[in-house]
Here is the input.
Amino acid sequence: MSSSETSPASGAGAAGAAPAARISRRRFVKNSLAAGAVTAGVIGLGGRLLGADAGSAKPVAGSASKPAGSSAAAANAAALKNVAAAGHLPAWNATLAAKPLEKVRVGFIGVGGRGNGLLMNALVLPDVEIVAVCDLDLPRAKRCAAACKKRRPNAPVPAVYGGAGDAYKELIDREKPDAVVIATYWDSHAPIALYALERGAAPAVEVPIALTVAECWQLVETAERVGIPCMMLENWSFRRDNLAVLNMIRAGLFGEIVHSHCAHSHDCIDHWFFGRDGRDRWPAKYLINFNRDHYPTHSVGPVLSWLDINCGDVVTEIFSSATASKGINAYFARKFGAKHPGATRRYAQGDIVTSTLRTAGGKTFVINYDMQLPRPYSNRWLVQGTLGVYDEERGGIYLHGKTKGYHQWEKFSERENEHVHRWWREGGGGGHGGVDLIELREFFRAVKARAQTPIDVYDSVVMSAIVELSGQSIAANKPVAFPDFTKGRWKQRAPYFGV
Ligand SMILES: NC(=O)c1ccc[n+]([C@@H]2O[C@H](COP(=O)([O-])OP(=O)(O)OC[C@H]3O[C@@H](n4cnc5c(N)ncnc54)[C@H](O)[C@@H]3O)[C@@H](O)[C@H]2O)c1
Here is the structure.
């Protein structure tokens, strides 16, 4: 890791500094309406989301039918040109970009709780063929393949790999999938994604995509060099409410955005970090050995696009602090008695981590990590601009000149219904209130059409770099410089997420 990544910020990106070649949001949105129409048509999955009964993944009708073919290829080339004109790197190398796919052949790596859920969602998508599944736990991979056969009796049974930590290599080398979905333990996300990229498969990777800044850079450099996009599966970016807020921001309803707040308040001590019997699960070691924001992506996902991060603005520094670690010991003492090893063991991880991030354009946003105290789930999203504020927890919005009543909240739900994002107009379904199917559908569409994935490699690594950088800032008790993974291109790049 270079010293510039770890040294405290020294006024870099002073508040108010205007990016030299910044593309105005209004101009971009206007220009991109035509481009968006082309892109939306091109990346249709080629049919309605029909038929399959995939457990929690309820099929939703309504997507436009567009067979792949020479007209689709021509339109795709136009869409890629638009992406390049908007300041993005072409996502795909020329050889692959010239060959949109009829079907996307996918391998699933890691089919535990999350991977299996994603797989059940993917089975609903008609243009997605599951060619293989892989898990450290070989019987689990076999059960998954059998479940695929049950749900898609006429499709070939996926090949099964597993039983070893590097069995994914055999899957990728032998099956040569177009894409892989990676839902393994955190420390294997980046290595598996890098292996896939080097061998021509587009990775869709569970959160976080990387654990270190060095891995983040490797992913950026590799995706750029091989010309294949790489997406982190941050599903909360696809929520109906968050996308409606994005539409409203892009329509100028909040004025100039200056601040946001977000949180991941989710008590995961009794079922995820540790088993219900109190035994360590694989993520427990992170609470024992590190003090940082382990899980920033669900909170920060929508905030990146609300604040135009990497496309008009860039994060320049992070300052994090942590409370004492009380919650885990208290949980074990309460549930298993004061003598249980979990009640006396020392955990490095503080209960609440608060990080403040600053941008070159003078914005700030605050993230709370909060996963080990008893409480109901909350993300506490808030975004504030020169014309108004949205407060998710309150279910409220205030828009100057539009909201009736002086300094009064109005209900967000009515505004939300007026600004439904096109992804939701097409329909949702599946896990987490519908977002899981939408994020997969849009990822596979992009791979099929050889278009940029809905979340690109730069946004994926910015969300993930917070893990290591928050730890560095807590340890040093001072702000830490945030790397610019776009290498200055944020000044020219226009918004792309959900455009
Ligand atoms: N986006 C979301 O809403 C969401 C929800 C839950 C979990 N997650 C993420 O999904 C990932 C998995 O979490 P989980 O709850 O499913 O954990 P899990 O323990 O239930 O599943 C992980 C699976 O990966 C397998 N695995 C580990 N290393 C492997 C390797 N090298 N090769 C093949 N298989 C391997 C394990 O055997 C296990 O079956 C984590 O990154 C987590 O952060 C995301």
In short: Confidence is low (pLDDT under 50) at residues 1-77. The first helix runs from residue 3 to 6.
